[in-house]
Amino acid sequence: MQYSSRFLELNVPDSFLNINKIPDATKFITVMYICLTTTLFCIRRSLYNKLILEDPDVEYNLVTSPILQMVPLQIWKYPTSLVLSNFIDTKAWKVIVNLLNLIIGGSFIERNWNSSREMFKFIIVLGSLTNLLIILLTLILSLFSDKVRLDIPLDGNYTILIGFPIIYRQLLPETTIINLKTPRFLAKNFRFKLLPIFVMFTMTITQIIWFHHFAQLFSIWITFFASWSYLRFFQRLTPLNCPSLPTTNSRGVQETLIGDASDTFQLIYFFPDLIKPILRPIFDFIYDLVVVKFKIIKPFHDIDIDIGNSIAESRGAKKITTVEQRRRQLALEVLEERMVNP
């Protein structure tokens, strides 16, 4: 879909908007999302109507259903909420955004992955593990600060809102979404690779300035790092869901690539250039700690990086040339020049 005017250009790939047939996992998750979100609304409204008769000052936002919502104080009684909260929302804007994200974006992602299993793993399994981590961190923080409330439910459904933009960046890195033409000082070519940090910046600012819910802020960033970590180190790719992979290896066994080892998918490249010098030593330290010292994650080999770069370039990603590579290239050019002109 393309739209152009004197003010802006809108460009969204037709493959992204193709929802003639919603894939199986996306269809199931969307139906569950609609049913459980509607159920939660009915339960809360019914409870509120009863409570308001006893206490006219009761706040609707404090009416909860711990079976569906993650309430830290009651998580031990209702651990089902770690899973079921992946399918609910209480805010109208988030319901609309997530439904569009699921129907359009979910269909696009599942078709590209060609795997319903991966879609279930990303939204349900990864989402539930992330929710468990968020609850544990919230409980720990409550020991040090009275401002962390354990009776207010945490949003357990950030995987779609935050995780999907990371996947869009992976699959459509250089594709332009909006190109602002005027006014000139705001002119900007907004591509999918900028979407994750834009979403994170917007949600972080709103939590800090308006909502002041710092446990929710931790939830947003934990979901971001968890989603990236899964795609970077753990997702399994085969020739069925990634045509750029060779069909078999030298021994005739079907090739499987774990994670996305491409240079462009490094965590540092999700952030603006202005803060990269600050973040790079931090990320390098964490990588050395997790991968090199404690070996929690298996390091990538050169062949993995080469294949990852090849896949990323086939998706339109620009090749990243490091300082070392530029020096090597310059040295080769000087050597060739000397050989031609001794």
From TrEMBL:
Q: Which GO terms describe its cellular component?
A: Golgi apparatus; membrane
One Pfam entry for this protein is DUF1751
Q: Does the keyword Membrane apply?
A: yes
Q: What Gene Ontology biological process does one annotation of this record name?
A: retrograde vesicle-mediated transport, Golgi to endoplasmic reticulum
Question: Where can this protein be found?
Answer: Membrane
Transmembrane regions listed in the UniProt entry: 122-144, 156-172, 192-211, 217-234
| Top-level taxon of origin | Eukaryota
Which keywords has UniProt assigned to this entry? Membrane, Transmembrane, Transmembrane helix
- Protein's membrane topology: Multi-pass membrane protein
Q: Kindly provide the name given to this protein in its UniProt entry.
A: Uncharacterized protein
The gene it comes from is SMKI15G0560
